[in-house]
Amino acid sequence: MPTPTKGPRLGGSPAHEKLMLANLATSLFKHGRIQTTETKAKRLRPLAEQLITKAKRGDLHARRQALAVVRDKDVVFQLFDQIAPRFATRPGGYTRIVKTGPRKGDAAPMAIIELVEELEVAAAPAPRKAAARKAAKADSIAVLAGDDADEAPAAASASASDEAASESADEAAADEDEQKKA
Questions:
Q1: pLDDT single digits (tens) 139-152
Q2: Is there a contact between 46 and 72 (Cβ–Cβ < 8 Å)?
């Protein structure tokens, strides 16, 4: 558990506060997003991030430490096998708190705490560019060196350009056919 704060507790006693935070963490990992008061969300964030960091470790001791807080085995399984791999490359900041507005009954400030989604789309194009650069560099080195052994990549790129030319010719023929029909 994180270092306790000074002043009044969220519940009636420290034990009740610990149980409330454990239940909030269980709900957060089960649903991915929960709505609660701002104070509870701010107190939940360090606990949830520590549990995700332990889940990223993935060993038996970390699993038992997580089970000491989150007592639902299905949620711990989900934490270790689905949530932790999502954040494998992220060094921290797994949760986000969004303030929503006052609660209708007692005007308590409410917030949504949610797990941050990893953007895999942005990470995927980077290796392709690097691979393309390496291939282009290898081709240029082969051309400059004049090696006959490295003509295969040049031939492969020539055949790829021939295929592209034939595809553009097919598209042009299809366009001409459409114009004749009109």
A1: 777 777 776 554 55
A2: no
